[in-house]
Amidophosphoribosyltransferase
Amino acid sequence: MLTTHPFDDDKLREECGIFGVSGSSGAAALVALGLHALQHRGQEAAGITSFDGHLFHTHRAMGHVAGNFDRDDVIRALPGDVAVGHVRYSTTGETALRNVQPLYADLSTGGFAVAHNGNISNAMKLRRELVRRGSIFQSTSDTETIIHLVATSNYRTLLDRFIDALKQVEGAYSLIVTTPEGMIACRDPLGIRPLVMGRLDDAVIFASETVALDVCGATFERAVDPGELVIVQGTEIRSIRPFQAVAPRPCIFEWVYFSRPDSIVDDHSIYSVRKGIGAQLAIEAPVEADLVIPVPDSGVPAAIGYAQQSGIPFELGIIRSHYVGRTFIQPGDKVRHLGVKLKHNANRALIQGKRIVLIDDSIVRGTTSLKIVQMMREAGAAEVHMRIASPPTRHSCFYGVDTPERAKLLAAQHDLGGMTDFIHADSLAFVSIDGLYKALGEARRADIRPKYCDACFTGAYPTTLTDYDESATVDQFQMLAERVV
């Protein structure tokens, strides 16, 4: 069985998407709508947990939101005016129903449901200690570590127990928690993973991206700040910041690929920023060509920016079918090869005899780029030049993004010439790390800590990596979070 997303298989996988509603009748239906808008962040599984004032109700399933949460009987089985949902692509833990979130547990303080976007980078160490002390884990997800830390905390109130748990974890997290006392939304002190807050009439809504607020008709209020806990109890909303302040380091790849183009981050349109990255790429890596062609769909905004800056016409030289299922059985290599064209096919009449510039957002293993270049040559392209709207991905992510081990990253194994030869392109170029920051309206200085987490490009990890193999190469110079003075 082979995925029919051949150009998506070599992408950095989106972390996860979370969505929570407090104070709306039929909250689960709103959560299902919000999860639809966040489906791009995780296509492996989805789940919703609701609270009706007395009991918690959960429905979790493998697969997409559509097909699992578009049935009346499923939504009716999730009553209450408080609900939290999750779409998942596994970064830790196996692909199994027991790892599908929200995770739920009955604690001494009552029910506790949690949806998590990110990755706890010391979860293995914490888990070993918790098991030694008698904890019994029901999943292989790092998120369950948080539940056990709350359950075993010696603090009296649930909120204090939750804060105590968070102070023991390392890495990245945006969390939405539902308890009988109310809903809690929070981000890690560095704000690596995103989380925003909105309003729909009297309801408070939390989501991974602003586009999910748009889809359900909510009004964006603000981002949840790094290190902030927002507590919603009925109509009361309060905010606390229990962690020592540190300079934030949000994930820069949200701008490059993860977020939907119609989302807004820090008052900037993701779509506009991606066009700006493409324009910067045209300045840094010009080439004589006849057409600029995006790799759909993630390369489109950058390709528009490249075309506008360079003056080379933008054309859709790869046509994507949106009506192919995720998998189907392919008996034999010949049919397997033909299956690639079910999802993407070259626009031969346009490409033949042309010098083309292919724009994509990233190169991970390089296998996708190799397929695309080969497709262009088979369609008769005279020259194929590859331009990438991010710097070379040379390091693995440990903060909730499913990246291959470093030995499988093309840029970690080859220089630019070697990568060009591997994908069989006439030329290859990446936007520089400085150019990427410039497109974001920032400057990356080597003598101070950067504004964003760009460890996948630079190896400058913003936190300690307790569970990481110490024998591997990590830039320890910028490992510890810089304190704000």
Remarks:
- The radius of gyration is 23 Å.
- The chain has two domains: 13-248, 269-324+334-458.
